[in-house]
Design a protein that fits this description.
The chain is an alpha+beta fold. It has helices at about 30-40, 75-80, 85-95, 125-140, 140-145, 150-160, 170-185, and strands spanning about 10, 10-15, 30, 45-50, 50-55, 55-60, 60-65, 70-75, 100-105, 120. The strands form three sheets. It has a five-stranded mixed beta sheet. This is DUF559 domain-containing protein.
């Protein structure tokens, strides 16, 4: 399917996807969500954007061979301020479905809603959010990821794309990054991590 060139509003740009047509809807998709999905899909190859569960659409979902589905939601402060109850209920509804877990990446200064949620810096782009999400997913679902052989990939990605120290608001993430630095061999080949400009479709350069 080709991409319909829609109107941009801030970091939100209308676009078509295999399950969504801009020509039939006025909704927009965040460029942060789009880039975040592109990067995380390199690790969790079985991903959907958007992902529908419990009759409602979520930003993205990733399916593990173990049967676990990890739903990742990006909550920008502009659109989610004052909607904490709505977002909390949506997470609860999704996690009530068997085999589903939800991680919300909450743009500062939004409050975290669940133990699994993670703060991301204000106006952080998709690659920066992904760099923070990788270690958080790695330690949160370590046993499940180890069962399907992904813990090595996540550890390697964390090592070669280490988050900025000031961005690490999760204490366990801080411990995990230190663990990775001491446990993973530096002789491992680099993993391709697209430059933000290369994530933009149709060859357009991001300003």
């Amino acid at each position: 399917m080709g991409y319909f060139k829609g109107r941009s509003i801030g970091r939100y740009q209308a676009q078509c996807s295999p399950t969504f047509c801009v020509a039939e809807s006025g909704a927009g998709t965040s460029s942060v969500e789009r880039d975040l999905f592109t990067l995380l899909r390199q690790v969790f190859s079985r991903g959907e954007q958007p992902y529908e569960v419990s009759g409602r659409k979520s930003d993205m979902g990733f399916h593990l061979e173990s049967g676990l589905t990890i739903v990742v939601e990006y909550d920008g402060a502009y659109w989610h301020t004052g909607h904490e109850d709505r977002d909390w209920r949506k997470s609860e509804m999704i996690m009530a479905e068997p085999g589903h877990r939800v991680i919300r990446l909450r743009e500062e200064p939004l409050e975290l809603l669940h133990d699994l949620d993670l703060h991301v810096p204000k106006r952080a782009d998709g690659p920066r959010c992904a760099t923070l999400a990788i270690p958080h997913l790695a330690h949160t679902f370590y046993e499940e990821l180890m069962d399907v052989g992904l813990e090595q990939t996540l550890g390697h990605l964390t090592m070669v794309n280490k988050p900025r120290p000031d961005d690490l608001t999760c204490k366990v993430c801080q411990d995990y990054v230190e663990y990775v630095e001491h446990s993973f061999p530096h002789s491992l080949p680099p993993i391709y991590w697209p430059h933000p400009r290369r994530l933009t479709r149709r060859g357009r350069r991001r300003t």
